[in-house]
Amino acid sequence: MKILVTGGAGFVGSQYVRSMLAGEYVGYENARVTVVDKLTYAGNLTSLPARHPRLDFIEADVCDPHEMMAALPGHDAVVHFAAESHVDRSLLSARQFALTNVVGTQNLLECCLRAGVPRVVQVSTDEVYGSIESGSWREDDPLAPNSPYSASKSGGDLMARAYYRTHGLDVRVTRCCNNYGPYQCIEKLIPLFVTNLLDGKDVPLYGDGQNQREWIHVADHCRALQLVLDRGRPGECYNIGGQVRLTNAELAGRLLALCGAGQDRIRRVADRKGHDRRYAVDDDKIRRELGYQPLIPFSTGLADTVAWYRANRRWWGPQRQAVRLPVTAAGHRGRDNGQP
Ligand code: NAD
Questions:
Q1: Which three-class secondary structure state does DSSP give residue 34?
Q2: Cα distance between residue 10 and residue 217, in whole Å
Q3: Quick one: DSSP state of residue 1?
Q4: 3-state secondary structure at position 153
Q5: Which atom of ligand 1 sits closest to the CA of residue 82?
Q6: Which of 50, 91, 216, 287 could form a disulfide with 242 if both were Cys (CB 3.0 to 4.6 A apart)?
């Protein structure tokens, strides 16, 4: 079994690769993994096991047909994580999002078709449905993305649908809520807040802090992806939900408590342009069809995540200089925002 993982040096992709190589996925204990990653600011080779006998790495761009046609042949499946993933960046420079998330996905699907790759998982997000005041989105609800990030992910999802419908390529789409866990770039909310607190800095909270998100541990997300890869149905979409829904203010409170800091460390900043108020997915389908359920309780997972950042400054410390964070539409440096 040979699995090609795009974006495998990023946050979620590297978790998937580590879990696969650690033998956590039944039936795939001996699988070989090829990571294809462009190593943008968000890609980090130190998130992957060093010199693992079943791991190959190719530095390549999913938008490049020649590079993909060289990498893909001989693989049994592709799990497509590679993306531009930070909403704040998409507010400032949407072009790269359209290129990677739409054109890159189309190019990858076309090359999978030509190379005869039998199965593809398109890893997408609950953000494609847009904001929902109450209740939760189902897979057959219409897409109504509001940011250039979620619009570009929607474009990728629609390409996946088109390649299934038109060409019969076996593509399955997953739409997951917000992930947390180790090895996440410090531009995103949880690592940003934790590393700021560890460094004695304030944490910035957008607007009134009442935007609500659903949270899942990254390892649970990856287990769900593996179920979809292994037993999902071609051409289908699967929502992946988490264990809790929290406002950003509630989440900030939990992080302050875990880091031993007081409420006075919260600094209110102007709201993000077009900030979606609430995301929530109904994941009854994957639970019913594939027996999925998240296993990591939020309180344990969050405490472990904070402990990981505390213990792994060597991993994130260099990002303070290396990751150039954007000035957001609200006029604040991305480093100071980082909210999902
Ligand atoms: P990330 O930004 O941490 O990682 C993205 C990876 O893709 C990086 O390693 C980067 O180098 C690579 N990459 C970017 N452009 C590329 C290109 N053109 N060619 C090859 N590689 C390229 O993102 P993440 O948080 O790990 O998200 C991974 C996927 O999961 C994305 O598709 C995202 O939409 C989806 N997702 C993420 C979350 C979340 O909460 N993090 C939730 C739902 C869905």
A1: strand
A2: 15
A3: -
A4: helix
A5: 7
A6: 216
**10-residue averages of pLDDT along the chain (340 residues):** 98 98 98 98 96 97 98 98 96 95 98 98 98 95 97 98 98 98 96 96 92 96 98 98 94 97 92 87 98 97 98 95 62 46
Q: How far is the CA of 7 from the centre of ligand 1 (A)?
A: 6
DSSP 158-187: HHHHHHHHHH---EEEEEE-EEE-TT--TT
Residue 66 is predicted with a pLDDT of: 98
2: β partners: 32
Q: Which of 208, 102, 116, 214 is nearest to 162 (CA)?
A: 102
Helical axes 298-311 vs 248-258, angle rounded to 10°: 60
* For ligand 1, atom 10: residue with the closest CA: 43
The per-residue DSSP string of 184-245 comes to --TTSHHHHHHHHHHTT--EEEETTS--EEEEEEHHHHHHHHHHHHHHPPTT-EEEE--SEE
Q: Evaluate if pTM is beyond 0.90.
A: yes
Cα dist. 171→10, 122, 326 in Å?
22, 7, 34
Q: Do residues 173 and 165 touch, judged by C-beta distance below 8 A? A: no
Burial class (CB in 10 A: 0-12, 13-18, 19+), 144: middle
Amino acid at 75: H
Provide the pLDDT for residue 322: 81
- Amino acid letter for position 164: Y
Which is catalytic among the residues 16, 28, 149, 180?
A: 149
Ligand 1 pocket test, pick from 81, 126, 246 with the greatest ligand atom count within 8 Å of Cβ, gives: 81
Compute the distance from residue 84 Cα to the ligand 1 centre, in Å. Answer: 6
